[in-house]
Here is the input.
Amino acid sequence: MVAYGAEERVRLPALRASWLTQTFVHWPFPPQAVQALLPGALLVDEYEGAAWVGFTPFVMADVRLPGVLSATPGLPAFAETNLRTYVRRPDGRDGLWFLSIEVACPLMLAARAVGVPYNAGSLRVSTAGDSVSYTGSRWTGGASYRLVVRPGDPIEPTERDVWLTSRWRAYTRRLGVLWETPVEHAPWPLADASADVLEQTLTTAAGLPAPPGGPVVHFSEGVRHVRLGPSRPLVRGPGVS
Here is the structure.
């Protein structure tokens, strides 16, 4: 069982932000299909015998770099969309592995230095009535998506809800080095949601087969005061080359 709240304090954040208007779309996949996309130092994490891949569009707001005072304006809000899965190190320490990240702010591409798979694109998040719409297209490579969700009532998260949405570190790889980035924020306030429109080619672009069946969908108004710690190198060697 993963932790519902952050597992460690991030006392000296490398970046502060708010993650708002976030939708979680999850599909179960055969574990071997996902393991084939991971570095050797990481093992696919499973829930009820399946690996899970999450498609998670949201708005990144209140972005501040180290040393920027809270009274100083940060970057303008922008859209971001992650395609992610869940992994463990051999010692059991769990986290996220990003298969791709679409982003509307080219400044975020600097994180490629530690292997964060950012792709610049045209992304948009909008609301109309009781629906939230997300669209995006990658500037290179042709991957795109369109999602329209209808948020429902707030829920008390089940074990599976927590497992699918709560991770407190991300792993990336760059030049044979595995990096770990810790994150701290309040638990996600979750609501049920239904997808009225779901079209995407991100999973195919990442090397996955077509998603099997209908997804599990959650919506969250989001979390503020997110603190990302500095990325730290963990492993170097043939298993992560």
Remarks:
- DSSP finds three helices and 13 strands in the chain.
- The chain has one domain: 15-240.
- The longest helix spans residues 159-165.
- The mean pLDDT is 91.
